């Protein structure tokens, strides 16, 4: 059983009746091992991915043809609120932190996170936040009012969330669940920063950190500055709703625009918190499959730091239509456009890494190529929207929806899939099927482009977002139908992926320690890594420690 | 498929490999996150200054909390004493330092309680009254809740010291706790400036 996964081992032993289910559940529920916690994060996120995906499909069915009455307007509002909230907070962040939890200690040669118990606490409180959000389907107006999920949008603009406009408790579930998961996120970020700074193995100087670790470090620093405001705003909203404070109560002089500021001070950095880990995966995968060291390591680090800083000063580009005044608009237009400089540096460096490399198009690599292409387009539509006059035309239209799904799905989810195929052998000791992987890639790629390329068009033609149906004859029908068909392709692709995940666990080819011939420290451990990670604490001499080991005649450390 | 073992430890003598302490780095992270929360409350307070639709206004009802401020700020010094005493393995002085810190912090809380009592029962200002009430109680309350958390942890440290479980080797932990306490004090300085000096 040398190559069995901890998951499989558990399944096997339970099936064979060797260990009672209870014992296994107890072991996972009380674990403080960073690898198990990472896996639990990822598992949780996949569940929420399925749930939020179903919500998306329901919305697309409703919009596929004009004058549809498949679902009611109220349910539609709940669907887009739950979909957005779930995807951002209970799919995106957990899955990224899951990978962070699993990989960061391994990559820096540490045996665990700096605070293992805090780590477990953070996971469980985030998970509880997610459950609380969905419990609103039962609890918000009592069991008989089942279905009163939050319906105020994932941005929950004031005064829609005031007690008068949102009676019952649906909004409270939204607020409290984000408050709790926010605490969990801050805890995990704190853990990652501390681990990176204080637990590096001998010789792992900051400039020798794998880029993935650098990016998680910076993401985590952004979490402190971005989630804090969200938490603060949620506390204020809770005070408003429970004990009659007036922060966002426009009747008593409170300001709705202040909520927008607070939300986007969090919201904009948040999108970078989601995208930087995606960059992190690409940073590790592209060099390995091009058989070259990453091009411009220091520039990559500098660009990431720059993105971190700039992204904190652009939030009001979500508020051009509020009327910020000429000076405000100009500032936020330029600040937003400046972001494209470090982002461009990154794209350039990835291309330069691929350039002239011996490219090996395994599944992780093709997902990265999809990422590169789609992220470029997403950046371009972002720059278009950051021109205030253009935004006045297109804000709150389907063009915006297309833009951000290009980043969130076209870039982040593609990078995530790449990461799954790349690190799966490390986690389980078995390879994922390449054939199924290619099917998954092509189905998903076609579906993605059918959906989101064509979604720009109804946006340009004036179709607003968050409408639950529309009349025929406006020129939107055909586009919406295509968008809906694309969604089906994506679903089929994802089913291939999930099937591949489960099947490979039992049938996958045995992977060995280092199937990709990579050079970061996690590949120096057996697959799956034992609970203490490293039998002997490693010492490193360069950025590519395994390369040094495999090529004693020409180690990197001679050049650094 | 290559099978590589674990990385061998090098035999040559390496320069010492020292990394910052986990407690301090973790606490600094926590402080940054907390500071972000406080900033949002500060911004709200400043933003709503003078925007209340009804009275009372800060100028009418607030008095400078000099006594509480002096208590809280001097508690930063006493906690520092406690840490330096422990570093020199002087457990008795450490206990003394911690005890005075707890006492001073408690006095601060008493003065806040008195202030709130006065505002609520004499002036009729609650969190519902107007925007001033909303922002005032939220901000001062947020700070006070941090003081209370600090007091609880300091009291635990005090009990540990008195029962002889706090030794020189725990200095770092106490230092991390003192960092938190200094942060709470520093925030009070800002609260004081914004609420009682500028706000009036
Ligand atoms: C070059 C970089 C980018 C630029 C210039 C940019 C610009 C913009 C602008 C101006 C808007 C506001 C549109 C409106 O509401 O009228 C927007 C919306 C949005 N962007 Fe981006 N963006 C960029 C990258 C990203 C990334 C990396 C992500 C996600 C990871 C992202 C996610 C979003 C989301 C979620 C929204 C819509 C929020 C909402 O209204 O619900 N953007 N973007
Ligand atoms: Cu933005």
Could you please describe the fold and organization of this structure?
Chain A: It catalyses: 4 Fe(II)-[cytochrome c] + O2 + 8 H(+)(in) = 4 Fe(III)-[cytochrome c] + 2 H2O + 4 H(+)(out). Chain A: Belongs to the heme-copper respiratory oxidase family. The complex is a heterodimer of chains A (about 550) and B (about 200). Chain A is mainly alpha-helical. Chain A is built from 17 helices and no strands. In chain A, helix 9 (about 295-310) packs antiparallel against helix 11 and helix 12 packs parallel to helix 15 (about 435-460). Chain A is globular, with a radius of gyration of 23 Å. The mean pLDDT of chain A is about 90. With about 200 residues, chain B is mainly α. Chain B is built from 6 helices and no strands. Chain B has helices at about 20-45, 60, 65-85, 90-120, 130-160, 170-200. The model of chain B has no long low-confidence stretch (mean pLDDT about 90). Chains A and B meet through helix 6, helix 7, helix 8 and helix 17 of A and helix 1 and helix 5 of B. The complex binds protoporphyrin IX containing FE and copper (II) ion. Protoporphyrin IX containing FE binds near residues 317, 336, 383, 391 and 404 of chain A.
Blueprint of the fold:
The complex is a heterodimer of chains A (560) and B (200).
Chain A (H helix, E strand, L loop, with lengths): L5 H10 L5 H9 L4 H31 L8 H35 L8 H24 L30 H29 L12 H33 L12 H35 L6 H15 L14 H13 L1 H15 L8 H23 L2 H7 L3 H31 L5 H27 L16 H31 L37 H6 L10
Helix pairs in contact in A: 3-4, 3-5, 3-16, 4-5, 4-6, 4-8, 5-6, 6-7, 7-8, 7-9, 8-9, 8-12, 8-14, 9-11, 11-12, 12-14, 12-15, 14-15, 15-16
Chain B lengths: L21 H26 L10 H4 L4 H22 L3 H32 L8 H32 L8 H28 L2
Q: Which residues of chain A form runs of ≥5 with pLDDT under 50?
A: none
Give the C-alpha Rg of chain A: 23 Å
User: SSE order of chain B in H/E notation?
Assistant: HHHHHH
CATH class of chain A: Mainly Alpha
Uncertain segments of chain B are none
By CATH, the superfamily of chain A comes out as Cytochrome c oxidase-like, subunit I domain
